[in-house]
Amino acid sequence: MIDLKNVKKIYHTGGEELIALNDVSLQIKKGEFTSIMGPSGSGKSTMMNILGLLDRFDEGSYILNGQNVSSLTDNESAHVRNKEIGFVFQSFNLMPRMSILENVELPMVYAKVSAKERHERAMIALEKVGLANRVKHKPNEISGGQKQRVAIARAIVNQPAVLMADEPTGNLDSKTTLEIMKIFQDLNADGTTVVMVTHEPDVAQYTKRIVSFKDGRLMDDQLVENPIIL
Ligand code: ADP
Ligand code: MG
Predict the structure, then answer these.
(1) Which of 11, 22, 218 to mutate to test ligand 1, by most ligand atoms within 8 A of the CB atom?
(2) For the chain, counts of helices (H) and of strands (E)
(3) How far is residue 189's CA from residue 207's CA, in Å, rounded to a whole number?
(4) Average predicted confidence (pLDDT) for the chain
(5) Which domain holds residue 133?
(6) Domain at 143, CATH number
(7) Which residues does ligand 1 sit against, CB inside 6 Å?
(8) For the chain, what is the domain count?
(9) Is 230 within the bounds of a domain?
């Protein structure tokens, strides 16, 4: 599903060069549930943004779901992203003026899905995250955990090949964190490939594989022996 080889990412700021990812290679197969761990500044978000085609890299190659996506134009990236990737952010990134339902329908508007099918698929996605009874609410009328569930529904509504999340539980308390991890586990059990960043070792124990970064390098890659199933 994901085949990243020898990737290097350099940020240029004020004449300075910062190597954010150094010779990173990672393969992820269909159906895996992987967490990316590491201290602040170790390159986790940079890695996730590259995997999610939200950012470019300077050296190396990336094959996503059989397609070489190493050097796409912005338009091509946007197209592949909308088709293959669902992305969930720490800060939810919902549209504040739109209802829950409209937020979940939005990726399908971009994908030019008909209004009827948009509604049907949005409702199915909202049912999967347990929010089918909140569709008319606005984001500021629901809790943080519910907002993240809306974001997950929005991320899966185009049936992406991979669901990616950068610190999806970073703004949530521990009880709500478990609710979100259960949703990821359920989606993974149904066949969705999931990759998520977390800096919390406890949270990583709910995934099946832990890839650890330090100073822009991939330092460790281990299967979780007994993942905790929620
Ligand atoms: P993490 O998510 O693990 O905290 P990041 O990927 O955000 O790490 O950052 C890795 C390194 O790259 C850090 O040193 C950070 O300061 C730097 N960095 C991240 N984004 C940018 C950017 N847009 N411009 C310049 N430097 C950046
Ligand atoms: Mg980060």
Answers:
(1) 11
(2) 7, 10
(3) 11
(4) 96
(5) 2-223
(6) 3.40.50.300
(7) 11, 13, 18, 20, 38, 40-46
(8) 1
(9) no
